Amino acid sequence: MENKLKRAVEGIELPEDAAARIRAGLSSAPAGKPRRRLRGRTVIIAAAAAALLIVGAGAAYVQVFRNSEIVGGVEDIPEPTFRNSGILEDLGPEIAVSYSRPSADFGTPRTLDEGAESIRKLYASFGTDERLGGSILPGMHWTHSEVVCGSEDVLVRDVYGEDGYVKRDYFPEDPALVAGEFPFVCVDYDALGRIASPAPESCYGGVIKDRRGRLCESFINCFYEAGTEGEWFSLDFTHLAEREWSGSNYIFEGDWDEAYVYKNANGLEFVITALDSRADAECTTAHTSITITSYFMSTAELEAVLDCVSLPEG
């Protein structure tokens, strides 16, 4: 266990004196009772938490990713190591790991019009209560809307739901126009604009607050035209203010034409998977999920898109 923690600390980019203090503390720690083996990601999270406590508020921030892990097969997935003690009432008796595999038609070609169809239906119904953007939470629904702005570059409406929830919807011609409304993710839209162009009526974002005005969730989904031969991609960003994303999913390397981890120009780690005409990238932290889905683009072209994305520090 101590050796694993030491390796985890060594994998975190910290000032050398801080990392040395962590390693020294681990070496001098008294032996305790035998414990169950921790999964690799759990070790890294534990080490990062220790690093934050020791280094203090003035140090460079440590970013922990909760991406899917690439493994060779089912035999490489560790057994669940955490059992619910009853403290977390909403969880079952055991938190199990999971794995996902592409469906039979995963890489089937899709056009941008097909991909953006659901957002364009929202545009078409703007000003009515026909489509209000799904449910708030399981068992809770949006009931009606009110137009805030209906004739500018950014269409805006407030959508009201049960139990006092309010969602402010944004429909911008260009997502750069509403970047300030979604500060949980940073995009270099100038650099992105040299690669692709926002597709018409294909960007939709929302900010959900509870009856006390507290932020619950923010999300934005935008589609881009990326070439003259049907190339396109979508950006899908979601931030959970009150909950966290889980991080126990595995994918099998042999299911894909390509499957690897890419560290972008801003230090974010993406899991890239490619199959037939489709290439995806995902980066997940405790509260933020970044997903890019592309068609008819190479993974090198997808990486250029990823280099335009970063997270705010602190």
Automatic annotation (TrEMBL):
Record-given protein name: Uncharacterized protein
Keywords attached to this Swiss-Prot or TrEMBL record, sorted alphabetically, are: Membrane, Transmembrane, Transmembrane helix
- TM stretches of this protein: 43-62
